[in-house]
Inverse folding.
């Protein structure tokens, strides 16, 4: 019996261009009536989650790709990179023009000009309405003061396979959440060691006394693989990365085709008619 469900946001719970479909709101209401706990599990920081997602009123939030766990008003985990590591990278990338970097705190995303350009280009290709975003896509890395912000996620784009920098980071207190090609760049997403969505799902389920076999998860990106691995039922979005498919019990239609709603009906979590 499914007692708790974990949802990624972008490309899963929410369409990049259209937002949250009405069917998701219906599904959330029915899940609550059935006593099922609902948790957002995202790579976003808490302060950058879109308003339409917050309006769903989830029971808990796993943010920063697993760095922070909040259930109700309780903070169960809140990890960040060591300030000396952040300072070292900041100095290296502050004047960088060819490679891109973002550094994320709980409420803000800091980025250099290259990262801002790459992210804005991606938003345009996806038809994303930036007015719904709490992220400002412009160069603001120089405004970051290490002593004022705890950084829990670092992303960088490089033309070269910058193995040396990546090796140095992974040897200290970082782990790779996901990586891959991004246009002409190699893209790396780093979080503190001991984090990750799968680890966070396990931590929260243990806290709530829920067995993993009674948990369900929905995701579309490579950083969702660890989450899909640990839950009793796992669902990958058909519009997502195909690397998730081997780890999924079912493949869902994309958000605006009511994929989540239909999957919850098919698995018996809620009742309804699939058209």
């Amino acid at each position: 019996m499914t007692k708790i469900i974990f949802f990624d946001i972008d490309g899963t719970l929410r369409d990049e261009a259209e937002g949250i479909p009405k069917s998701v709101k219906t599904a959330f209401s029915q899940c609550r009536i059935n006593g099922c706990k609902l948790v957002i599990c995202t790579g976003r920081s808490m302060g950058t989650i879109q308003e339409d997602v917050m309006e769903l009123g989830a029971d808990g939030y796993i943010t920063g790709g697993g760095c922070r766990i909040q259930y109700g008003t309780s903070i169960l985990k809140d990890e960040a990179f060591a300030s000396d590591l952040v300072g070292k990278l900041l100095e290296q990338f502050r004047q960088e023009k060819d490679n891109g970097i973002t550094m994320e705190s709980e409420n803000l995303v800091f980025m250099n000009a290259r990262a801002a350009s790459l992210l804005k280009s991606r938003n345009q290709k996806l038809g994303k309405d930036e007015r719904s975003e709490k992220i400002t896509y412009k160069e603001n890395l120089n405004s970051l003061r290490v002593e004022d912000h705890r950084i829990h996620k670092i992303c960088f784009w490089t033309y070269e396979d910058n193995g040396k920098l990546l090796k140095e980071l992974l040897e200290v207190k970082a782990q790779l959440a996901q990586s891959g090609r991004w246009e002409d760049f190699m893209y790396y997403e780093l979080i503190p060691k001991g984090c990750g969505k799968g680890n966070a799902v396990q931590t929260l389920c243990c806290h709530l006394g829920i067995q993993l076999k009674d948990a369900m998860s929905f995701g579309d990106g490579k950083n969702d693989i660890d989450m899909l691995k640990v839950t009793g039922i796992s669902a990958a979005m058909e519009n997502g990365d195909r690397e998730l498919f081997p780890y999924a019990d079912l493949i869902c239609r994309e958000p605006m085709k009511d994929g989540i709603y239909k999957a919850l009906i098919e698995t018996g979590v809620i009742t309804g008619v699939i058209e």
Observations:
- The helical segments are 22-33, 51-54, 83-93, 113-126, 163-171, 197-208, 225-230, 259-266.
- Residues 177 and 236 are 17 Å apart (CA to CA).
